[in-house]
């Protein structure tokens, strides 16, 4: 499933389904528990009412068992025999015994049948009076105050079988006989309520999930509509190779708008990079054409007329080609992201070494390096030497009579400053001179002016080493190039 909309809709539907199922189960459990508690209360009340009558020595056949259909009653003695049941109770489960036929119990002191002892009423009354006077027979029993035991079961009353919740309450008769009263409360209301709620949930859940899936699908489609616009525009840019085009930016301030802005920024950088590469190739081709053409001309003349061979000129053109090829190779490596080495370079010694190798230059350079100073940086010795050499070449090319180089500590780094007393660099051109193949003095000959890569290489190398290269006006009136590099850790 590759569609984001489909995955979002299915994911949201699954989450809502799990949440609703969990919530529905919780509701059903709470509802069932509350209804069972109500049934327990009804069963306990009915059981205690019968137990209270037994405790007051009411004869079994005179017990008031109201609502026998709603609250079936079964009374058992200490031996588990059934002594009393509701009138229409035909079967029962869940009370410990399934008997529904009263059994005479000697221990229960069952009341005599209506026909027994008819001629002995006076003597019975006298005996009862004597027993009351002697106090040998207690006047009242008791009902257990402990919490009743509850159980689930069924009862068949008047031919109808249903589920009941039974409560068991113990009662002691005035004769000292302990009886257990089982009274039931119907669970039909609980079952009906639970079934109704369950049915409503089972009916409503699929409909709600369909609504959630549909809404999620529509909302996701609306949210992703700008993404589709961005995709189409990028596809068009790829097909046309027109990097000047930009993707549409939605007016919202969400992640998609940020994506569109970032995409346009990337396209801007890419366009500038491609344009820079095109200019680089064009300028490099132009710079290489002149020395190659000059060298070819000299070789062709020498082939036809050996005595006219300008050997110094051919060597100069060859050297120029070699230097230009080396510069182009270094720029290509820098553009490829080549990282400088991690060797420790002492800038003071490196500057002295570079200046000492320029004994035959048009203008000699003076060096100012404090004695005893430690000016160590991390990087490539060859590339840093190239930077200082390029700065010296540029200063000597534009100087009138003096070039000065100084090395000093500057905060957490080392500063190398190259100054000359030439015409300087106009303020509005101080950033442009670091572009590739840029020469401010177009009238200068190519041999004197170079290809315009020295300062570009110097700034790129400085940036790769974590430093900076800037230009300002020197105290001598010319240009002051300042190279700053972080000090070695």
Can you walk through the features of this model?
- The chain has 489 residues and is of the alpha+beta class.
- The chain folds into 3 domains: 1-105 and 134-240, no CATH class; 243-338, Orthogonal Bundle (Helix Hairpins), CATH 1.10.287.130; 340-486, Heat Shock Protein 90, CATH 3.30.565.10.
- Helix content is 48%, strand content 18%.
- It has 9 helices and 14 strands.
- Strands 1, 2, 3, 4, 5, 6 and 7 form a 7-stranded antiparallel β-sheet that branches. A 5-stranded mixed β-sheet has the order 9-11-12-14-13. The chain has a two-stranded antiparallel sheet with strand order 8-10.
- A hairpin with a 5-residue loop joins strand 13 and strand 14.
- Helix 1 (4-55) packs antiparallel against helix 3 and helix 4 (255-304) runs antiparallel to helix 5.
What would the keywords be for this entry?
489 residues; alpha+beta; five-stranded mixed sheet; Helix Hairpins; seven-stranded antiparallel sheet; 18% strand; Heat Shock Protein 90; 3 domains
What are the low-pLDDT stretches, counting only 5+ consecutive residues below 50?
A: 106-138, 442-447
Structural class, from helix and strand content? alpha+beta
What characterizes the major β-sheet? 7 strands, antiparallel
The percent range for strand residues is 15-25%
SSE succession? HEEEHEEEEHHHEHEEHEEHHEE
Radius of gyration: 54 Å
Number of helices: 9
Determine the N-to-C terminus distance.
53 Å
Overall spatial form: rod-shaped
Number of distinct beta strands: 14
């Amino acid at each position: 499933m590759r569609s984001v909309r489909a995955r979002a809709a299915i994911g949201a539907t699954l989450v809502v389904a799990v949440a609703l199922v969990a919530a529905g189960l919780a509701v059903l459990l709470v509802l069932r528990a509350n209804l069972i508690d109500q049934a327990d209360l009804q069963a306990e009340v009915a059981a205690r009412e019968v137990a209270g009558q037994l405790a007051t020595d009411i004869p079994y056949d005179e017990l008031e068992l109201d609502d026998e259909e709603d609250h079936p009653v079964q009374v058992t003695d200490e031996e588990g025999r059934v002594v009393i049941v509701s009138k229409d109770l035909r079967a029962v489960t869940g009370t410990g015994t399934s008997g529904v036929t009263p059994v005479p119990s000697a221990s229960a002191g069952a009341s005599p049948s209506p026909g027994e002892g008819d001629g002995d009423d006076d003597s019975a009354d006298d005996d009862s009076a004597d027993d009351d006077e002697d106090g040998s027979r207690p006047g009242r029993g008791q009902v257990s105050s402990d919490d009743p035991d509850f159980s689930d079961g069924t009862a068949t009353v008047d031919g109808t079988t249903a589920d009941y919740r039974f409560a068991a309450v113990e009662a002691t008769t005035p004769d000292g006989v302990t009886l257990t009263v089982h009274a039931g409360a119907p669970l039909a209301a609980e079952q009906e309520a639970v079934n109704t709620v369950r049915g409503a949930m089972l009916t409503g859940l699929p409909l709600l999930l369909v609504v959630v899936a549909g809404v999620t699908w529509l909302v996701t489609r609306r949210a992703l509509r700008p993404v589709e616009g961005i995709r189409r525009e990028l596809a068009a840019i790829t097909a046309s190779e027109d990097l000047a085009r930009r993707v549409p930016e939605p007016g919202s301030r969400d992640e998609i708008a940020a994506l569109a802005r970032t995409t346009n920024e990337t396209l801007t950088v890419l366009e500038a990079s491609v344009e820079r590469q095109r200019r680089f190739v064009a300028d490099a081709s132009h710079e290489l054409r002149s020395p190659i053409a000059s060298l070819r001309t000299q070789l062709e003349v020498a082939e036809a007329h050996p005595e006219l061979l300008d050997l110094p000129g051919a060597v100069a053109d060859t050297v120029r080609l070699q230097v230009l090829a080396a510069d182009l190779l270094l720029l290509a490596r820098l553009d490829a992201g080549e990282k400088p080495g991690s060797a420790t370079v002492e800038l003071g010694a490196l500057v002295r070494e570079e200046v000492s190798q320029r004994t035959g230059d048009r203008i000699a350079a003076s060096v100012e390096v404090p004695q005893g100073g430690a000016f160590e940086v991390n990087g490539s010795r060859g590339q840093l030497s190239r930077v200082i050499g390029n700065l010296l070449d540029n200063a000597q090319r534009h100087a009138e009579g003096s070039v000065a180089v100084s090395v000093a500590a500057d905060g957490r780094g080392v500063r190398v400053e190259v100054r000359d007393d030439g015409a300087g660099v106009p303020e509005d051109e101080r950033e442009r001179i670091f572009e590739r193949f840029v020469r401010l003095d177009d009238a200068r000959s190519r041999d004197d002016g170079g290809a315009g890569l020295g300062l570009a290489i110097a700034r790129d190398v400085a940036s790769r080493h974590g430093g900076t290269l800037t230009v300002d006006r020197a105290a001598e009136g010319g240009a002051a190039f300042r190279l700053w590099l972080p000090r070695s850790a």
